Structure formats: C-alpha cells, structure tokens
Amino acid sequence: MFLDLEKHLVFYGTYHIHPRNVAIHIMFVPVLMFTMMLWASNVALPVTASFVPPEYLNLSTLTSVIYAIGYVLMEPIAGGLLLPFVIGQSLAGTYCVQHYPGANKWAGIIQAGSWIAQFIGHGVWEKKAPALVDNLVQALFLAPLFVWIEVLFKFGYRPELRKRMEAQVKIKRAELDARGKKGAEVKKEL
Q1: Residue 114 to residues 11, 37, 68, 189: CA-CA distances in angstroms?
Q2: Contact 57/45 with Cβ under 8 angstroms?
Q3: For this UniProt entry, which segments traverse the membrane (predicted)?
Q4: Which of 50, 95, 166, 169 has the fewest CB atoms within 10 Å around its CB?
C-alpha cells in the first residue's frame, strides 16, 4: 500500500491542478527539501562508521537515505534519477552548516519564503488547502518525488501513468470541490 505510486500521485495531484501552483511547487519543494536537510544535519547520530566521516553521520544523511530508498522502491527509474539529488542535498546541507555560520538562519528565512509562496499558490490558484492539511507525512514525503515526476511527465515520461493519474485526479478533485461547496453552504446557513 505504501509503495503504490499511482495512489500517492493521485492524492497529491488532487491538490495541485493549476499550472501556476504546480510551477511554484516545482520551484520551491526542492528548496524546502534542501533547507530541511540542512537543519537535520545539525543533529548528530549516536553511531560511528569507518566508511563515513563523523560529521556526515547525522539526521540529514539518514533522512536522505530513507527518502532515496523509498523513491527508488516506488518508482525505480524516476527514483533512481532523483537519488543523487536527494543525497547531494544532504551532503551540501551538512557542508553549509559546517562552513557557513549563518546557514541555519538563512535556511529559516528561505524556508519561510518558500512556504509562503506555496500557500499563496494554493490560496490564489487552487482555492484549496494544501495536501499537508489532510496528510502531513504523505505530503512531506511525496512532494519531492511528485514534482520530479511532474517534470519528467513534461518530457514524455510514462505517458500511460500520466493519463491514468490525470483521469483519477479529475474525479477526486470534483469530489473535493463538491465537499467544499457543501461545507460552504452549511457555514452560510449558520
């Protein structure tokens, strides 16, 4: 169930229909991932390994490995192409924390701006709350893979998957919109 790529893409895609909102996510999700990896690199792991420098034995490294393995298991080709980027963000984040004293502060500023941009995308163009409101863990884990697959779709990657996903997203979005209208009508009556 967890590795059902199509199901997860439909969930995430239901909240990301408008091209401008999708573009905002393609731009800012990788930035959010990088800044989160940077912050996670501040947390050392209580382990040692002779093949890894001690400064890289941190929560960022562990998180990047988990994300990379999950992405490869969900979608081997797209996940395999994304793997170096995910691991690279962890390594770059760790490097920044070690060599640039203001890295954490700048990551916070960039993080805030990136979240604001995404919430604007949802409020202005989608007119819907983001996916993380309904499933925080799924949205945070899936977002980088989803935006990567969105980019790959634009280059003709797995057209049959894209077609199936878009058909299911239309149905799910219509259901979501209908629930939203019913909720608005109930609020209006009160």
Answers
A1: 22, 15, 22, 36
A2: yes
A3: 21-45, 65-86, 106-125, 137-157
A4: 50
For the chain, how are helix, strand and coil distributed in percent, rounded to 5? Answer: 80, 0, 20
Helix, strand or coil for residue 79?
helix
CB burial readout 84-100, b (16+ within 10 A) else e:
ebbbebbbebbebbeee
Distance CA 141, CA 139 (A): 6
- Report whether 32 contacts 114 (CB < 8 A): yes
Cα distance between residue 11 and residue 139, in whole Å: 9
Q: How is the chain split into domains, by residue range?
A: 5-189
Query: Each residue's pLDDT tens digit in the chain (190 positions)?
Result: 578 899 999 999 999 999 999 999 999 999 999 999 999 999 999 988 888 888 899 999 999 999 999 999 999 999 999 999 999 999 999 999 999 999 999 999 999 999 999 999 999 999 888 888 888 877 788 899 999 999 999 999 999 999 999 999 999 999 988 887 665 554 455 4
The 10 Å Cβ neighbour count of residue 9 is 25
* 32 burial level (CB within 10 Å; 0-12, 13-18, 19+): buried
43 phi, psi to nearest 5 deg: -105, 105
